């Protein structure tokens, strides 16, 4: 009996840990009296990473022309299915002049209602550039297949700073391969494809910088990306130089779950190699 109980417990823990929350969640955010509007639409773009860490953007909107875009970070506890998200920088806002963006903290719980995945809970916050509290409220969201607003690629501060200064010469794109995946987590490794000849590359995903002027060798350049369901992603390898033996060539090894794909890429001063990904859940 003890062995059976332990096995069941391990299966349950594994199932909880495997919950992947990456994707688009949309629904309603209410606000008690005193706020600008009694109810807003809310769309969370969640990227669920290692150790149950979460990054993403929150769009609170009345319509697609009146919205705030704020980034957030947080954690998910798979044991009690609770998620806490804390907003930080306001990235964009176009709202009525008598309204002020709120920097919010979300306390949400994940649940399955039949086949529908839901996040429900409460929020509280304070006004942007101040400490005055915002009238709090409640949240109800469901997982969506398509976003209302564009999905950003997650970058660290160093890459964001480099991206602002990035000036790449326009080049023709050459599609090397299109890969359809069945999970949101993709591991990409880039090796020099032949003799190590000091090829260096810059790699972008949907025009967002992932690697900048990195040398290809026998040791892989490794990038882990999280992709959203039903969204298309274009990874481009831009040749910073041609090495000693033109063109600039690389072997890309793509790991998706238990599957591996090998793609040979070649970039020159006229063309950039591109691999496309699409996650069909």
Describe the structure.
- With 281 residues, the protein is mostly beta strands.
- Helix content is 9%, strand content 58%.
- The protein has 2 helices and 17 strands.
- The protein has helices spanning 2-17, 157-165, and strands spanning 23-30, 39-48, 53-63, 66-77, 82-94, 102-113, 116-127, 133-144, 172-181, 185-192, 200-205, 208-215, 221-226, 232-239, 248-256, 259-267, 271-279.
- The strands form 3 sheets. The protein has an 8-stranded antiparallel beta barrel.
- Strand 5 (82-94) and strand 6 form a beta hairpin.
- The protein is elongated and about 70 Å long.
- The two termini are 37 Å apart.
- The relative contact order is 0.14.
The helix-strand sequence is HEEEEEEEEHEEEEEEEEE
Radius of gyration: 22 Å
Strand order across the biggest sheet?
A: 1-2-3-4-5-6-7-8
End-to-end separation = 37 Å
Main sheet attributes: strand count, strand direction, barrel closure: 8 strands, antiparallel, barrel
The number of helices is 2
General form: elongated
Task: Average the pLDDT over all residues and give the rounded result.
Answer: 88
Work out the number of β strands.
17
Contiguous uncertain segments of 5+ residues: 1-17
Fraction of residues in H or I helices = under 10%
Strand content bin:
over 45%
Which structural class best describes the helix and strand composition?
mainly beta
